[in-house]
Amino acid sequence: MSSLPEYRLSPDEYLALERTADHRSEYIDGYVVAMAGGSEPHNVIVGNLVTLLNVHLRGKPCRVFPSDMKVHRVDTTRFFYPDVTVVCGESQFVDANKDVLLNPILLIEVLSDDTESFDRGAKFKSYLRLDSLFEYALVSQSSPVVEHYSRQDTGDWLYSRLEGLDRTVTFTSVGLIARLADIFDKAI
User: Fold this and answer.
1) Is 160 within the bounds of a domain?
2) 6 pLDDT exceeds 60?
3) What is the C-alpha separation between 169 and 156, in angstroms, rounded?
4) Are the CB atoms for 173 and 143 separated by under 8 Å?
5) DSSP 8-class letter at 164
6) Does some domain include residue 49?
7) Residue-wise pLDDT tens digits, 93-119
8) What pLDDT digit, counting tens, does each position of 67-79 carry?
9) Which residues constitute the domain of residue 174?
10) Number of H-type helices and E-type strands within the chain
11) What are the backbone angles phi and psi of residue 54, rounded to the nearest 5°?
């Protein structure tokens, strides 16, 4: 009886493959993890968030990226595709390809059944250790719920859970107060 050898890629090998791939994959400590496509509610919520943030940040030195921009923490071998990424000031990238950000201030993940435990686990732990990150939000795709984490001056993270279309979430890092009714518009 034989077993297949374990095959791992270096970060450089991953980036070279990812930049020519037909589909997106995340990278965790040598392993490539294929990403599934999002459902209609997932994509509507991401679109709503990108729209709300872009309109609010018009004329400000911030950029909003949808889920095609990778994020990396330099002291790890992990590369992720957040659903929504915001950078203010000059974007810092891994290299001249400008497809892997190092300095997000706000990251948002829209949860699905397939990704929820990963978004709350490995991604969550990696994101919270990004020095530039001030806020992280987890958004349900099936009900009007936003879980919001904000870094305090002490370095600790403050958690809040907002539920209901009549609620608002404050993204302090970009000065946006967003109604959950707008985030979930046409999605649920």
Assistant:
1) yes
2) no
3) 19
4) no
5) S
6) yes
7) 999 999 999 999 999 999 988 889 988
8) 999 999 888 899 9
9) 38-183
10) 5, 13
11) -65, -45
Structure tokens at 18: 């990812």
115 compared with 62, residue with greater pLDDT: 62
Rounded distance between C-alpha atoms, residue 40 and residue 3, angstroms = 39
- What one-letter code names the amino acid at 160? S
pLDDT band at residue 36, thresholds of 50, 70 and 90?
confident
Give a three-class secondary structure readout of 108-141: EEEECCCCHHHHHCHHHHHHHCCCCCCEEEEEEC
> Given this model, what pLDDT does residue 131 score?
94
In angstroms, rounded to a whole number, what is the distance separating the alpha carbons of residues 83 and 95? Answer: 21
> 1-32 as b/e, with b when 16 or more CB fall inside 10 Å?
eeeeeeeebebeebbeebeeeeeeebbbeeeb
Count how many domains the chain has: 1
In the beta sheet, which residues pair with residue 64?
86
| Average pLDDT rounded to a whole number, residues 174-184 | 98
CATH number at residue 51: 3.90.1570.10
Residue 16 lies in a domain: no
Token pair 């004329």 is at which residue? 59
Among 69, 96, 99, 98, CA closest to 84? 69
